[in-house]
Amino acid sequence: METNKQTTREGKKSRGISAFIVIVFALVLAELFYFLILGSKGNFEGGNVDTGHPINLLGTMFKGGFVVPIILTLLLTVIILSVERFFALSKAKGKGNLINFVYDVKSDLKKGNLSAAEALCVKQKGSVAAIVDAGLKKYKEMETVNIAKEQKIEEIKAEIEEATALELPSMQQNLPIIATISTLGTLMGLFGTVLGMIKSFQALGQAGAVDSVALSVGISEALVNTATGIATGALAIISYSFFSGKIDNMTYAIDEMGFALTQTYAETHNS
Question: What is the pLDDT of residue 9?
């Protein structure tokens, strides 16, 4: 019971911020940026936002239409969640080098020095150390319990699996949102591209002389939305792959420690 409470507390401490709050915050920032920065009068000829031709990139982005704030919201969400995941997973990994931590704990296990291994967990901190510490405590508990050896080994495995199940969700938090944006950002970019091309063809299809302003607005909307959508999707893919790799490294370390605990108990105990 004590081990479960300790692991649960560790998991709660590593909980990240809510993705919903991040999305709302990013939406507000995107709208402010769109209307106050991109829609500034200084970005258009004659200071007229409605009819003036864009004179710089910011004005061109503003002409991208209502899709631009949506894509900017997705882009800001990816950036904020990536920063949040970086700190959350750094905390979950612990203070020291994870490879050295695993090596040192395994070394103490071979020597039968469980107290030193527990001290390493206290020093390392983080989710991985909390899981290993739960396994070590169950290891010591099994040395005092009068049941079959095979059952003791299964109890150690079950304790590590339970501790992992408590910690893993906090490590994976917000990553599904980033994965979704990797596709959604590109799709929104394509949606904006289609809207921009529709405006361009409407300008070409008008009777009389071609409306060059309307044509340029349509083309700019298409190109701006394409570029920002692709950039958002690419950043989300990179972020998701990077943090998924970090989680994989931590789960590999946990699996290795779980195997080391059960293997050491099987080799050093007759019952």
Answer: 41
